[in-house]
């Protein structure tokens, strides 16, 4: 853990990372449902077929949208705008997370396969919208999703960060592999979701934690020690 004391930049995933795994189904469940409806309407297929395409494209291309762009020339902005129109009224401000982020003496960024609009509505709901130094979404990645190395390099260039002085925090384990190759410290948010835990026993993960708040609390204690 002492290796994290001198980290100058933290890159956080969004869904399932900045908020708990207990909220993932409530939030991403809505997104997933709207994806199915969008695909059904755009491709003129029933919902069952739409869900099959959604799942198959996700597993083959790392996002359903990537597969839709490749095979059906779907408009990325139109897709993202539609699927992220969700209800977050049930979310509460995370006071503990806000406190730890405020204490963290380092740059803080968000890197997601979702959209900037989705980032904004999530972090506003959590009450942490003013605490980040930058965001990087799927549009800025030219619709090339994690874990493509190309996308990580674009993100690094945008933020002008030194990977060897950075830490990447994710709930999908395989997304940490490129970060580790680039020299970053890697932290996996432990979960039991099939896609999330796949490859979580490999050596490209430096640390496993239950949530972001507990991680930052330990790091903040180290930094003042």
Structure write-up:
There is one protein chain. The chain is an alpha/beta fold and 225 residues long. The protein contains ten helices and six strands. The chain has helices spanning 24-43, 47-61, 64-72, 76-83, 95-103, 116-126, 149-159, 176-181, 194-197, 212-224; strands spanning 9-12, 107-111, 134-136, 166-170, 185-189, 207-209. Strands 3-2-1-4-5-6 form a six-stranded parallel sheet, sandwiched between helices. α1 (24-43) packs across α2, α2 (47-61) packs across α3 (64-72) and α5 runs parallel beside α10 (212-224). The two termini are 13 Å apart.
Task: Name some characteristics of this structure.
alpha/beta, six-stranded parallel β-sheet, 225 residues, globular
Average pLDDT, rounded to a whole number, is 95
**Low-confidence region ranges:** none
Measure the end-to-end span.
Answer: 13 Å
> Total number of β-strand segments?
6
Question: Which word captures the global form?
Answer: globular
Helix percent band: 40-55%
């Amino acid at each position: 853990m002492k290796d994290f004391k001198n980290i100058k930049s933290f890159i956080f995933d969004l869904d399932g990372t900045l908020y708990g795994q207990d909220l993932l189904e409530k939030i991403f469940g809505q997104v997933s449902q709207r994806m199915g409806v969008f695909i059904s309407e755009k491709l003129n297929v029933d919902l069952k077929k739409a869900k099959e395409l959604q799942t198959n494209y996700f597993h083959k291309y790392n996002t359903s949208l990537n597969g839709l762009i490749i095979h059906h020339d779907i408009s990325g902005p139109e897709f993202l705008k539609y699927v992220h129109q969700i209800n977050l009224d049930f979310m509460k401000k995370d006071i503990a997370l806000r406190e730890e982020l405020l204490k963290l003496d380092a740059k803080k960024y968000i890197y997601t396969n979702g959209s900037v609009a989705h980032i904004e509505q999530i972090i506003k709901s959590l009450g942490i919208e003013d605490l980040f130094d930058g965001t990087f979404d799927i549009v800025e990645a030219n619709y090339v999703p994690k874990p493509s190395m190309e996308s990580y390099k674009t993100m690094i260039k945008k933020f002008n960060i030194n990977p060897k002085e950075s830490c990447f925090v994710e709930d999908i384990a395989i997304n940490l592999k490129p970060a580790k190759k680039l020299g970053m410290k890697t932290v996996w948010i432990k979960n039991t979701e099939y896609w999330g835990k796949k490859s979580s026993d490999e050596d490209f993960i430096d640390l496993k934690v239950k949530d972001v708040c507990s991680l930052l609390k330990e790091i903040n204690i180290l930094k003042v020690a």
